[in-house]
Amino acid sequence: MLRKGITGSFGAAIHGLNTPQLTDGVINRSKRMMLDTLGVGLIGTRTDVFKKALAYSKLFRSDEMSRVWGQTELSLPPPYAAFVNGIAVHSMDFDDTWHPATHPSGAVLPALLALAKTLPRPPSGLDLLLAFNVGIEVQGRLMRFSREAYSIPERFHPPSVVGVMGSAAASAKLLGLSPAQCAHALAIAASSAGAPLANAATQTKPLHVGNAARRGLEAAQLARMGLEGNPDILDVSGGFGVYYKDYGPSAMEGSSSTDFRWILEDQDVAFKRIPAHLGMHWAVDAALAARAKLVAAVGNFDLGRVRKVTLRVPPSKYVNCAFPATEHQARHSFQFNASSALLDNKVTVSSFSRAHVDRPALKELLSKVQVETPGDNPPSFDQMYCEVEIETAQGQSHAARCDTFYGHWRKPLSQEDLVEKFSVNASSVLCTEGVEGVIDVVGNIESVRECSILNAYLSMTSGEEEQLYSTRSM
Amino acid sequence: MISTLQKTIRPVWAVRGLHRSAVEDLKRPAPEDTVTASYGKFISEVKPQHLSPVVLHRSKRMVLDSIGVGLIGSTTDVFELVLRHCQHMYAPDHISSVYGRGGTRLSPILAAFVNGVATHSMDFDDTWHPATHPSGAVLPAVLALSDMLPANSKPSGLDFLLAFNVGLEIQGRLLRFSNEAQNIPKRFHPPTVVGTMGSAAACARLLSLDHSQCGHALAIAASLAGAPMANAATQSKPLHIGNASRLGLEAALLASQGLEASPLILDAVAGVAGFSAFYEDYVPQPIPSPDADGHVFLLEKQDIGFKSFPAHLGMHFVADAAASVHNLLVGVDHGTVSQAKVQEILLRVPKSKYINRPFPESEHEARHSFQFNACTALLDGEVNVQSFSPASMRRPELLALLSRVHVEHPKDNPASFNSMYGEIQVTLVGGEVLRGRCDTFYGHWRNPLSNESLRKKFRNNAGAVLPSEKVEALIDAVEEMDKREDCCALLSHLH
C-alpha cells in the first residue's frame, strides 16, 4: 500500500519550521534537556569507552574541526566530534529518556554543536534551539508510526533507529537545506539506522548514540552535496518501516498550519538521577522505600537478617541480570540496583565502579533476590511499576511500590535539582567558570547571539582533570 | 607471523600519537559453548593452508572482477560525490589508495568507503547464493588495511587471500542462518547485513586478533549493520557496500583497541535480539574449528555469479531471453530490430517490487528494471555499460518498446536467484509470436564466465581508467597472488 507524500511532508516541515513556532513550554523543556545532556556528556568523558572511541577517532583530521567536550584543546572532524561526544552522553546511561522510549537528546545535540563550528556564520542560540527541537520532534513523530515503539524494545535499540533520523533532521535544519534535500537526508540516514538490542548492557551501547549523531550529521552533509536516496523512504514498504513489525506512517502537518503542535509540549522527557537504565529508577525508589519501612520497624538494616528480597517488575530480558559482571551489566540489572539501594541506602555514580560491583556483601544480597514478572506489569515506561518486598529471617515482610519515580515525566525533576545534577557532573571535568558559564548560556540561550560561546565554556577544564582521570575508575 | 604482526602494530599506533594503555595479558576464556565464540575462534585460528585449490582459484577470480568493477566505478557521479565528502577528512599520513586516482590517498577507513562505493556504483559486482554482493564489502577494507600495515610487515599474498576468504565465508555462513535469506530480499539490503560482518571478520583476521577480539569485532559490526531495501535503485545504494566495508574495518579496529560488545551477538536469545534482529526467522549454527582435518569453505561448493553488464542480477535472466528473440528477429545478418514491428511484449518474471519498473527515470532505476533491460536487449541484442547512459535511456525506439510491456508473475517463478527464470514473449504486428526463456544466464554460478570472458570484462573495465600495462600487470598480480611474498605489487597497480 503506497501512500506518497509523507516523506515530502517531513522534508517540508524540517525546512519550514521557524523560531516563531517555538512555544514557551517547548523552549523551557528543551533547554532543560540541553543542560542535562551537556552535564552527562561531560562526566561521560571520563569513561573507558569514551577513551577508546577518542583514540580511534584521532586517526582523522580535516580542515574544519569541532571541539571535543571537556577537553581543553582537542578537536576532531565534525562527524567524529559528534561521535565521541555522543558516546560520552550515553556512556553511563545517564541521559534523558522519552516516551515512546528512546534517548532523544544525545543523538542530536552533539551533532548540532559539531556542525555549528563549521558554518560560515555561527548560529544564534535560537537557531540552535530550533534545530534541536526539529531533531527531537522528528524522532517523536517516527516513534508514533508503530505500536511496537511503545513498549520496552526487544529487537533494535531505539536511538539507533530514530536517533539517526533526528540527527539528520536537526543537521539539515541547521544547514538550511531545501525541503527536497531534507527529505534525502532522512533517506540517507535510514540506511545508517538499526543496531540490535543485544549490544545494550555492553561497552558498545554508547556507540549507538554516538553513531546516531555522527551518521545523521553525515547524511545531512551528503544530502547537501547532492546525494539522493529514496524520496519516499518513510512511505514505502522496504523503507524506514523495516525496523518495525507494525508500521503505519502519517504526514507531518505544515509548519504554518495552525494544527502544528510540538510533541514535546504534551510529552515531557524523564531525567535520570542514577546512571542506569530507566527501569532501574523504579526499582531503586521502591527499594529505598521498603528499606525505610524495615528500618522504622527494627531500627537498622542488617544484611544477615534478610532472608529474601522479591522484585516485581515488567518482563524485559535485557535488564534482568542476576549477577552482573561489568559496570554495563550492572546498569541494566533490576537486581543490582535494588540491592545497591538496600545495602547503601542510595545509588549514585560510584555505585557502578568495579570496587562497588565486586563487594562480597552485595553479592551475598544478590543471591537472595528473586524476580517476578506479574501479568499486570507491562513493559512500558509509561505504565510499569516496581515492587520490592523484603522478608526477614524473623518472618516479617516489608514492601513498597513505586509507580512513578522522581524524575519521570509525570514527576519531573525540579529546576534546582536538574541544575544540581548538571553541576555535580560538569564539575568532574570543568572549572567553576566553565560550569557556571554553561548554566548561564543554556539558561538564556534564546538571547545568545552566537552559540560558539558554549563551546568555549565546554572546554574550560579544571586543572585537576589529569589526576582525576587516573584515580577515578568509571 | 602472528606475533610479528602484533608486535609491529603497536609501533604504528605509537607513531600516530594514539594513546594505547598498557595491554594486560588477556586471560583466554575457557572455550564457550556459544555460536559467537565459535566464530571468534574460527576467524582467529584459520590458516592459509586451509584454502583448497578450488577456493584459491575461485576467490582470485572474484578479486580480479571486483577490482575491475571498482576501477570503472571510479568514473561515476556517486563516486565523485563521496570522494569529495571524504577528502574533507584525512589522516596525518594519507595512506590508502583510491581506485583509479593516482594522486589521491585517503585514510584507510575512508579509502575502504569510497572504493566500496565504486565497486557497487554500477551494480556490476559479483552476486552469491544466498543473495549478497560479497566481494565489494570485503576487498576494499582488506586493501585499505594492507596499505596501513608497515612496509616491513605487509601481508603475504596468501595472508591477503585468506583474509578475503574469511570475509566471504563468514557472510555465507550467516546467510544460511535463515530461510528469509534464500529469497530476493524485501526488508534489509543483504550487503548491509552480512557484508559488514564479513568485512569485520576479514579485517580481524588480517590484524591477527585473538578469539575474543574477533568475537567482539563481529558484535561491534552488528551494531553498524542494516539498511532498508528502499534505497536500492537510488544513488544511495552504492553507499551500502561502501559502508559495509568501512564499518567492518572500523569494528575490527575498535575491537583491537579493546572495545567490547555482546558475547552472544550471533546466538539466539529470546527477548533480546542480536544479529537475529535483521531476520524474521533465525537459527544460528556454530562454525567448526579449522583443525587438522581442514575446513571446507562454502565457496568450494557454491560458486559466485559474475555480471556481464552493470545491472541487478535479475536483469541478466530477462536480457538473455530477450537477446535470443532479438537474434531470431534479425537473423544471421545482424540487422536492426525495428520497434514498429513489435505489437506487444510480455515478461514473465518473479514478483519483486524493487526491480519492477516500467519507466525508469535514472540510471539507478534502469539497472533495477526488468522492463528496461528486456527492451534494451531486444533492441540491441545485448545490454552493456553504455546502455545506461542518458542518451541510450532516452531513445525513442526504446521508450516505444517500454510502453508495450506487460509483466506477469507466474506462480512457478520464485523470487530466488537460484531458481528463477526470465521469459519473454514478443507478439509482432503480423501476429507472429516469438519466445525466449532463460533460467541460467551466462555468468550465473551454474554457467560461470570462462577465464577469457572474465579477463575481457576486466580489461574493458580497468582499461577505462588505467593504461594497458597496468591492466595486464594487475591481471598477473592477482593470478600469482598466492605465490607472492607480499601484496605490494597488487597495491601499487591500482591507480
Describe this structure in words.
The complex is a heterodimer of chains A (474) and B (495). In chain A, a hairpin with a 7-residue loop joins strand 2 and strand 3 (75-76). Chain A is globular. Chain A is built from 19 helices and 7 strands. Chain A starts with 5 loop residues before the first helix and ends with a helix. Chain A folds into 2 domains: 6-266, 2-methylcitrate dehydratase PrpD (Orthogonal Bundle), CATH 1.10.4100; 279-402, 2-methylcitrate dehydratase PrpD (60s Ribosomal Protein L30, Chain: A), CATH 3.30.1330. Chain A is 48% helix and 6% strand. In chain A, the strands form 2 sheets. Chain A has a 4-stranded mixed sheet. Chain A has a two-stranded antiparallel ribbon with strand order 2-3. In chain A, helix 1 crosses helix 8 (179-190) and helix 16 packs antiparallel against helix 17 (432-443). By secondary structure, chain A is α+β, with helices and mostly antiparallel strands. With 495 residues, chain B is of the alpha+beta class. Chain B has a 4-stranded mixed sheet with strand order 5-4-6-7, covered by helices on one side. In chain B, helix 3 (53-73) crosses helix 5, helix 7 (157-175) runs antiparallel to helix 8 (190-206) and helix 9 runs antiparallel to helix 10. Chain B is globular, with a radius of gyration of 23 Å. The two termini of chain B are 29 Å apart. The relative contact order of chain B is 0.14. Mean pLDDT of chain B is 89; it is low at 1-31. Chains A and B meet through helix 3, strand 1, helix 8 and helix 9 of A and helix 4, strand 1, helix 9 and helix 10 of B. Strand 1 (61-62) of chain A pairs antiparallel with strand 1 of chain B.
